[in-house]
């Protein structure tokens, strides 16, 4: 009887010990609440590189590196000219920035080509759009919206996934009225614009994706077209200054704007070039940093 009681006692002790170790092991493998609801910071930059006519990809990378971007949306990107056996321009910039995923569109704005729209070396030309990213990208697709202004205006679209969220990324170059001396009526400026056609396209998919759009809209920040684009798509324009270059993001739950900026970079790169004010492009880059919570 005594031996039986001792056996039961030892079995209970052994059982509790096993349960304790099992509990410790369970705690070790189950993520904490903070890990489940992790938050990721994402820095996105949009830049019209002006066909690379005043700077190489490596020169541009040197001034962008301090921003440490995670996604770069480029417009007026040149491609290798026919017969030139050189590395793709956008891939060179991606390598220099440490962004391993690159996709390049197939449409050159207004069908512009070299030599009139070529890079500083003469090896590249055109005004294409591209996306560089730290995270994998799907194969891209060009969307050509209908509307006023020059033809072959496009928004290049790719997808990626960050923190469990599906993101649709658009890099674009569209015509607008920012440089026109004769402005149309406000209503016709928006209703007949390629910007509105793009807004309609985004609205058709925004329930399935968080959307980020950046590039040269050729419309002023405070103008009706950009205000209408933001309102109709329910996207926030992170560009605060008066600018024709913009970067916007979905205002869905879990997307919080932390920082934003606009910069021309150093002005002593091309001292003899009046159009670019000595900068690497005749456009500034625009950027923002988002805080993105995990998808529900």
Q: What is the rounded Rg? A: 25 Å
What sequence of helices (H) and strands (E) makes up the elements? HHEHEHEEEEEHHEHEEEE
Low-confidence stretches: 1-37
Largest sheet: 6 strands, mixed
User: What is the share of helical residues?
Assistant: 25-40%
SS strand fraction: 25-35%
Q: How many angstroms does the end-to-end distance come to? A: 58 Å
The CATH architecture term of the largest domain is 4-Layer Sandwich
Please list the strands of the largest sheet in the order they lie side by side.
Answer: 3-4-2-1-12-11
- Count of structural domains: 2
Q: Which structural class is indicated by helix and strand composition? A: alpha+beta
Lay out the secondary structure:
Blueprint: H1 2-29, H2 33-36, E1 39-48, H3 57-64, E2 71-80, H4 89-97, E3 101-104, E4 124-133, E5 141-143, E6 154-162, E7 165-173, H5 186-191, H6 194-203, E8 210-216, H7 224-233, E9 235-237, E10 245-250, E11 255-263, E12 285-293
Parallel strand pairs: 1-2, 7-8
Antiparallel strand pairs: 1-12, 2-4, 3-4, 5-6, 6-7, 8-10, 9-10, 11-12
Helix pairs in contact: 3-4, 6-7
